Amino acid sequence: VTVTTDIADRLATAVEAAHVLVGDAIGEDYTHDEALTVAGRRPAAVVRPGAAAEVAAVLRIANEAGVPVTARGSATGLSGACVPVEGGIVVSFERMNRVLEIDTENHVAVVEPGVTLQQLDEITAQHDLVYPVFPGEYSASIGGNVATNAGGMRAVKYGVTRHQVLGLEAVLASGETIRTGGKFVKATTGYDLTQLIIGSEGTLALVTEATLKLYPRLRHQATVLAPFPSLDPITHAIPRIVDSGIGPLILEYIDMMTMSATTAFVGLDLGIPETIREQALAYLVVMMENRHEDRLEEDVAQLADQLAELGAMDVYVLPAAAAGQLIDAREKSFWVAKANNADDIFDIVVPRAAIPEFMTKVTELASENASWIAGCGHAGDGNVHLSIFQSDPDVRAHVSKEMFRIGMALGGAISGEHGIGEAKKPYYLALEDPVKVDLMRRIKGAFDPNGILNPGTIFDSGDPA
Amino acid sequence: VTVTTDIADRLATAVEAAHVLVGDAIGEDYTHDEALTVAGRRPAAVVRPGAAAEVAAVLRIANEAGVPVTARGSATGLSGACVPVEGGIVVSFERMNRVLEIDTENHVAVVEPGVTLQQLDEITAQHDLVYPVFPGEYSASIGGNVATNAGGMRAVKYGVTRHQVLGLEAVLASGETIRTGGKFVKATTGYDLTQLIIGSEGTLALVTEATLKLYPRLRHQATVLAPFPSLDPITHAIPRIVDSGIGPLILEYIDMMTMSATTAFVGLDLGIPETIREQALAYLVVMMENRHEDRLEEDVAQLADQLAELGAMDVYVLPAAAAGQLIDAREKSFWVAKANNADDIFDIVVPRAAIPEFMTKVTELASENASWIAGCGHAGDGNVHLSIFQSDPDVRAHVSKEMFRIGMALGGAISGEHGIGEAKKPYYLALEDPVKVDLMRRIKGAFDPNGILNPGTIFDSGDPA
């Protein structure tokens, strides 16, 4: 499939000619996302619509001609879900970047898909409100967050993107535009199309507007760091911390190697004594927030006592600057992995109590295959971020597939927040129940009968190259 | 379509013969739910499966024969979504009522669909945990709650059923059984089938198991009642209470007539002076919970000050017994409406800041049509429960449709938590975007190509009678 001159001309009737890029005008940035294992590809055309009606016009043209369409936000994704199809059209949302409304009466924001998390955070801060999803990359766009159901460290308190999106405007492959949901948390009025589109990685519809839930921005934050002799007591501590009712904002574990690489990467000295550093195989990071400083201090003291009882080697309440650096560094763990030449990265999710068993089995698996796997994870929600070091692609594919199989056998799923995209499609197709895959294909057909939206992604057997 | 003797015989191969009821063995209870406007109908057979495999066997038989199937929980629904199809099969989940697991490490419950909210509440209480959705009817089943995405008063803090269901086991019309989600809050691993099935009112699949999120049960609760001169200042107070960060569990408004009828219904005297009762046209009820008694008291004091500033005529902190009675009475508002001979009830949802405009317009509409509409609502989430008194069915249909049109024009939806079922289908089909209805029909076809699951419901044009 290729975009002929004729279609490029037609696209220029849908979107201002200056925003239809072809040939050398298409910058290298448009050819890839951040996935380590999906090579970039050049699309035949990039269009930069300025409004939903232009998106609809582009899709009508593409659908009629059967040309593949890939939606693109900030392209910070890690699974290749916005790598273009050769000869296809990229719809880049960079110009649809307006915050349309901050509604302080209903506590919602209405935004275009190209709005970045940073942009939204700056505007909501002016109203003492917060959009609480921080997947670790502030340049990520809301449209991309919706497509991948982005998560991040704060999910243990606030949930993920899915829990914040109250409504969408979206364009179907046919060019028809629908509105779903609204400024309310409750509705049982037909099937929940909002939730179905979230996390569908651009395969069901192109999102042109999102209505997002906002929360009061709590003023006071504290971060506690606790070294442990191993991962096991950390995992046992998590449910007891949840039971305590302090309602942590962040509950992360970082293994020794990752802690060492991460702090070195950003030049951070946490002041942990050498003797402890030598014995600590894993660290727990707990961040809390409160609107009352005295309640926060009381909760920190309660947590410190509890952590000591639960086997922490020591408990450090980090100064604000060091805490900020540690969280930033943790958010950059993908870049640390990349800088350390990790061959691939994963974000499998398992029931949080199963993390130690999962890690024990995965470490054995890696060792049996002369590979190395290390990482950190959202201990509060079972989402484990791992880097694999194994340059042989066949061995790596074997280890990866077995790792996913171990996670799924423990009741987990292949991706907690990055998505399947193109990078994990072979594993997904090999391990998922074929009854579910067939059902998803029929749902895909209900939205996009000609299969023009992001072919080759998740379960689609089409070859995107 | 009728269930022939042959099919009844085949059903007895799927489910123990003692649990296949036909003819006079089918009690009157199986013929209806609690909807005021949907007449009961007799099914040809009622089956009471004891396990998912039996449900699957029943669906295989029904699908092959093209016989309609209606799933039934406790039948406390208010939209006729579990009223049987004449000649069809009712799958009643009363025997699948086991709590399979209370997992205190992952904070989840795994339950069969026939488990009631009361049953789950008693078991979780033993672990100091809570399943926080209380739609007001403790005899309701989890399966029914999932089918209607049940909400209730605590949604302003905890969200609705959709936000608590982490995974499902469900049987498709074909008899194939799938498992979705798991013991985790994060996943981007294919389309979210869990969320699609929730709220689909038995039209996509029959749920045979649900994995539910549990929370720490907070020990201390307080209830504040504030009379206001009208609804308008209550609505303006809501976002400011949310901004304050006290995180209310319940934020309800009750209009004067409903307060009077409700308290009379349960014989409750709240001790509000006559002079205030005469002037108060609306009441705000705020319930809070905390694990620390001192923090709760501090929050109550802060709220009382804030309410006085926001125009409350007075602020009453209710004694625990009276508070319990008031909340119980509010939960019984449907029965109050029924006892007062309401002709129909609605649970429209609008953006919460739009409640006064909605009520003003609806009151005008009712008055223009010699009808009377009164009610109360979940002020924190925009879900308004109204009773209409108008015995002429044509006038009532006109007023109802216009009321929904007003709510939708304000950005609302027809049902916040009861569902569309059969009762609201004509309004839904008249007012919903036909592009969305067509899309939902295609999704329905992807799950249930022969249309055997709950025909005649939501948007289905099939005649269930």
Q: Could you characterize what this model shows?
A:
The structure is a homodimer of 465-residue chains. Chain A is α+β, with helices and mostly antiparallel strands and 465 residues long. The first copy, chain A, is built from 17 helices and 18 strands. In chain A, α9 (256-266) crosses α12. Chain A is globular.
Provide the descriptors you would attach to this structure in a database record.
homodimer, alpha+beta, five-stranded antiparallel beta sheet
SSE order and pairing:
The structure is a homodimer of 465-residue chains.
Chain A: H1 5-14, E1 20-22, E2 45-47, H2 52-65, E3 69-72, E4 89-92, E5 99-103, E6 108-111, H3 117-125, E7 129-130, H4 142-148, H5 155-158, H6 161-164, E8 165-171, E9 177-181, H7 193-197, E10 206-213, E11 215-216, E12 220-228, H8 231-244, E13 250-255, H9 256-266, H10 274-279, E14 282-290, H11 293-309, E15 316-317, H12 320-331, H13 333-339, E16 344-346, H14 355-368, E17 372-378, E18 383-389, H15 393-409, H16 425-431, H17 434-447
Parallel strand pairs in A: 2-4, 3-4
Antiparallel strand pairs in A: 1-2, 5-6, 6-10, 7-11, 8-9, 8-10, 12-14, 12-15, 13-14, 13-17, 16-18, 17-18
Helix pairs in contact in A: 1-2, 9-12, 14-15
